[in-house]
Amino acid sequence: MSQENIKVPSFPFDYRGSGILLHVTSLPSSYGIGDFGAATSWVNRLVEAGQCWWQALPLGPTGYGNSPYQPLSSFAGNVLLISPDWLIEDELLRTSDCAHDPFPAAVVDYDAIVPFKHRLLQNAWKHFRAGTRSDLRAAYEQFCHDQNHWLDDYALFRVLKAKFDNAHYLEWPTELLQRKPATLGRERRELADQIGQVTFAQFLLFRQAERLKAHAHKKGLRLIGDLPFFVSDDSSDVWSKPELFLLDEQRRPRFVAGVPPDYFSVQGQLWGNPLYNWDVLRQSGYQWWIARLRSLLVHVGVIRLDHFRAFAAAWHVPAGALTAQSGSWVPGPGVEFFRAVQKELGDLPFIAEDLGMITPDVYALRDQFHLPGMRILQFAFDGHSDNPYLPDNFVTNTVVYTGTHDNSTARGWFEDLTSDQRDRVWRYLTGRGVKNGVEAHALMELAWSSVAALAMAPLQDLLNLGSEARMNVPGHPQGNWRWRCTEDMLSGPSFEWLRDLTKHANRSRTPMASESEICEAASRAN
Q: Domain boundaries in the chain?
């Protein structure tokens, strides 16, 4: 690849830091699911433990299977994350509005949560429409104006899905599927009140997200967001902008996304998302994609680019295939895309999720724009000294994780190893000066002591939880994304241990002046 006209972005992590990976839904709260209000105390706890970063999973509205990686919109937020307590503070709800039967403490019961939160938002809209908090009217109207490029279509999409019993939009009447202007106009008039409720809920969500971000910044904590590469096949994006995707004349996907056989699945993974029409996106200078990035950067400081390898090439599976094995690699937008993003946004505050079947062109694209990649310690112990996930082979421009939302917990992973594999892990750990006898904490010590610019661990590993606390099993569409921590879990000694570990590993906002100084700091930590 030519280096011509490529500006090297500023390093996204200007100090040697660490943090915790935890989705907002997994936080403890009184309402059955974590929300932005509950997140403020979580921010405080992280700061008290000396952490610099909090990483969450994607925050878009979820559909089938409740997966945050199958969003119904690239721009809307998940209204389940709205804090009822903050709506009470805003006088948009009364305490009596929020009365509910007990929810489970350790899992998210979506079947109970969705209708409960929907009822709360109906009441908030009713109160606002009746004149409560009229001082918010101007801000709401400004929000609707500023977000018009996606909000109107999204609101109509959600209301129509409700009207048609949540049917896939491909099953809607032909006039709606083809977006006939007269039909859309009639539906907007007839469903105006329901559309207003959807737009108002997004206004409330964005308002609360701004409040959370301001609180985190005041405390000195920075936020890492996560942008899914693909969108759901049943999304407002595909319905409202079909030209951006590889669809047939009936607006059905010609190809769907997935990955070939890999660590997680011998048959590969068939995700089912529609693929992008990069030729059309290129003609606009990738403006739709740039708008996705800009929208998320309003709320976070750094974005993890999910499935980064698809920017180089994506696995295209013919629609109707039963497994992902029949797919083929098709080139993505590559260097041209990141040049366009850089021209619009300046710096590229991204983490490249460079996991799975990665080819040299993917690494070349990542390195050409100086994007930090990811290293997962659970992948490191195959016995090969050149394994890129071994800390011995790290470069500084790296984010190391003990595991991610797609892995079992560190403890669950270790318990599933053979005795020979366990011995191999412990030999490596003790050879690197790790003395902690708790498997998850030993991996965290290894990550924190490495030269990687940023060390991250899921909360489950900090708490040394087993496989029952796993967030997601790739290739299994049901039963995921439900795990929650309890308040008792967050009040134990683990956070004191984390603070001490972070201080000892020189990750308490140690300035990142040079590669050699970072290597020396890691050496001292060992």
A: 67-222+229-240
pLDDT digits (tens, 9 = 90+) for 30-50: 999 999 999 999 999 999 999
Separation between Cα atoms, residue 274 and residue 375, nearest integer Å: 28
Strand pairing partners for 259? Answer: 269
Q: Is the pLDDT of residue 122 over 70?
A: yes
Give the separation between CA 326 and CA 429, rounded to whole angstroms: 40
Burial classification of residue 311, based on how many CB atoms lie within 10 Å of its CB (0-12 exposed, 13-18 middle, 19 or more buried): buried
Q: Tell me, yes or no, if 423 is annotated catalytic.
A: no
DSSP state of 173: -
User: Would the pLDDT of 65 be above 60?
Assistant: yes
306 part of the active site: yes
DSSP string, 207-252: HHHHHHHHHHHHHT-EEEEEE-SS--SSSHHHHH-GGGB-B-TTS-
pLDDT score for 476 = 83
Whether 336 is a known active-site residue: answer no
Active-site residue, from 152, 306, 354, 461: 306
* Global confidence as pTM: 0.93
d(Cα 458, Cα 21) in Å, to the nearest integer?
4
Which residue among the candidates 85, 187, 262, 406 is catalytic per the annotation?
Answer: 406
Say yes or no to pLDDT of 12 above 80.
no
Nearest to 38 by CA among 456, 479, 464, 486: 486
CA 79 – CA 86 distance, rounded (Å)? 13
pLDDT tens digits along 488-503 = 999 889 999 999 999 9
Q: Which residue is catalytic, options 353, 439, 445, 461?
A: 353
